[in-house]
Design brief:
The chain has about 400 residues and is α/β, with parallel strands linked by helices. The protein has 15 helices and 18 strands. The structure holds zinc ion.
Length: about 400
């Protein structure tokens, strides 16, 4: 494979990282200042950006089938390397034909590097220059991740988009952040070296906490690696909203225009709007499905706690403006009954609705960017979703 310069081989262009250009092409179709809409091509189909990815931690989006996901127009699903490595094991997934075939999701998939979960879930962990040794949160057994191991696992899983191994440090631990960022850069280089498959887009990850100088340094370093896309890590981990916005304002202007940007683990509807405004293309978050399992639904009048007695005889759907199966078919009264009777269908219906609400928001935003009106609509969009956040506080304890 060609490793330097752009070359033609058998009529296909490969860049210096050895990627087939057409496979991971990103075409921006419209821009409103820093917000963009475009198309990112992957081996399992195109992602129309900006895009929100439901999270399928254990090779399943909790309570939903792939058919449900197709019905709500999900295009990208994220799965977690740490979890699948521990159970059922990445080699088993490989032997079963890879993640797409194993879980019967044939649209694009993304896996994280496992780093974040090692730092947030594993019972004990010891980090050194070479990697991290940790104990499984399932049975306490000892394991070790290195950049090379993370890439090997992700190659066995076989997602379309994979991540370099990184260290996500506490954003408020200013002394440690620089050390973690520099290590993340060395690990990104090792991750790239370890890669053997050409049909997976390996994204480098920008770190640096909430320090603008470090973030700028990290953005430039990762951009220079020339990966087919760039992830922004270490946000939505305890910093303020203002710090997240300020960090994005430093990072995205330093990234190449023609590569998709993925803001990891973010976030709330407000975060999606603010992220797109600052030039982010890809998001994922467990929030919609986690809320659903706690009976909380996005709605125009605010986030609803469907356990609330006021819904016992409510004949309306969760959201009269929503086109999802749950809203087109069932009343709030019925869904509340399912919740009170502890029926599993409740989680499925509210998950369908909450995910569709965010996917619909992204569809709306793409339309606004295409017609050039996104920026002028921000106050309305934020007002609508801010109302959701406020309502949640008002109904708390009811
Ligand atoms: Zn709905």
């Amino acid at each position: 494979m060609v490793k330097s310069g752009i070359s033609w081989i058998y009529g296909v262009i490969y860049d210096r990282a050895g990627y087939n250009h057409r496979m991971f092409e990103f075409n921006i179709t419209a821009k409103n200042n820093r917000a963009r809409t475009g198309k990112f091509s992957t081996p399992h189909g195109d992602l129309i950006t900006p895009v929100f990815a439901p999270v399928g931690t254990q090779a399943t989006v909790k309570t939903l089938t792939p058919e449900h996901l197709k019905d709500i127009n999900a295009s990208l699903v994220l799965s977690n390397t740490y979890h699948l490595y521990l159970r059922p094991g990445d080699e088993l997934v490989r032997d079963m034909g890879g993640l797409h075939k194993f879980m019967q999701w044939h649209r694009p998939m993304l896996t994280d590097s496992g780093g974040f979960q090692v730092f947030s879930l594993a019972q004990t962990r010891k980090i050194d220059e070479d990697g991290v040794t940790f104990k499984s949160h399932i049975d306490g057994s000892t394991h070790r991740f290195t950049p090379e191991k993370s890439i090997q696992i992700q190659e066995n899983l076989g997602a379309d988009i994979i991540m370099a191994f990184d260290e996500c440090a506490d954003p408020n631990d200013h002394k440690y952040i620089q050390k973690a960022m520099e290590r993340t850069h060395r690990w990104a280089e090792r991750s790239l070296q370890a890669r053997t498959r050409q049909d997976q887009a390996l994204f480098g990850i920008v770190q640096g906490g909430v320090d603008p100088t470090l973030r700028a340094e990290s953005a430039k370093f990762i951009a220079a690696l020339d990966t087919p896309g760039i992830a922004i890590g270490g946000l939505s981990v305890g910093e303020t909203k203002q710090e997240m916005h300020d960090t994005l304002d430093v990072v995205t202007p330093l990234l190449p225009e023609n590569k998709p940007r993925y803001l990891m683990g973010v976030g709330t509807p407000e975060d999606l709007i603010n992220g797109v405004l600052r030039g982010v293309d890809i998001f994922d978050c467990v929030l919609p499905t986690r809320l659903a399992r706690h009976h909380s639904a996005f709605a125009p009048e605010g986030r609803l706690n469907l356990m609330n007695a006021s819904f016992a005889r409510d004949e309306r759907p969760i959201d009269t403006t929503c086109d999802c199966y749950a809203c087109q078919t069932f009343t709030r009264a019925y869904i509340r009954h399912l919740i009170m009777a502890k029926e599993l269908l409740a989680g499925t219906l509210v998950s369908i609705h909450n995910l569709r609400a965010l996917i619909r928001l992204m569809e709306q935003i793409r339309g606004f960017i295409a017609e050039g009106s996104f920026e002028s609509r921000i106050p309305d969009l934020l007002g609508q979703w801010d109302n959701n956040a406020k309502r949640k506080q008002q109904t708390k304890g009811n």
